[in-house]
Specification:
It is a single chain. The chain is mainly alpha-helical. 70% of the residues lie in helices and 6% in strands. The chain has a three-stranded antiparallel beta sheet with strand order 1-3-2. Helix 1 crosses helix 2, helix 2 packs across helix 3 and helix 4 runs antiparallel to helix 5.
């Protein structure tokens, strides 16, 4: 369930701008969803704002995040950088392996294509030869075709 900024402002007797300020001050941005032009606060955000408005002297419930020391921040960033470098090296190795595999597959495909083209040329030659033989048979008179076919095509044909 949820409540709009206008509804909580009227319940607490403050303006919508005050509610928006408290959302930012208390870090409740993750508890606010947008529906069209309307901001809807969840129950936690509504309770936190109501509590903060009723007890203004009470400290915020948001934990204070201490800024990390510059040396620890640099060490942390250096460690992250080293992790990313090692990940990058692993990815480069994987890419090299994949590139080699692709090159081998391409070479194999080219060899198969060359074999297929050679076979096509061989079959085209045979087809041309058969076509010439058929034309020779067709050009002879019908009474000689049987003997001519036996000579050109052989017994049983090819």
């Amino acid at each position: 369930m949820g409540i709009t900024k206008r509804e909580i402002a009227s319940e607490l007797g403050v303006s919508k701008r005050t509610i928006a300020n408290y959302i930012g001050k208390l870090g409740l941005g993750n508890h606010v969803s947008r529906n069209g032009n309307t901001d809807i606060l969840d129950d936690f955000a509504a309770a936190a704002i109501a509590d903060a408005l009723k007890n203004p002297e009470k400290p915020s419930r948001q934990p204070a995040v201490a800024a990390p020391a510059p040396d620890s921040l640099a060490a942390s960033l250096a460690a992250q950088l080293e992790i990313e470098r090692s990940r990058n090296a692993e990815l480069m190795e994987a890419l090299a392996v994949e590139r080699d595999r692709a090159a081998r597959a391409e070479a194999e495909a080219k060899a198969q294509l060359a074999e297929a083209n050679a076979r096509v040329a061989e079959l085209a030659g045979k087809l041309a030869s058969l076509a010439e033989r058929q034309q020779a048979i067709a050009a002879t008179p019908w009474w000689r075709r049987g003997r001519m076919a036996m000579k050109l095509l052989g017994p049983g044909g090819e």
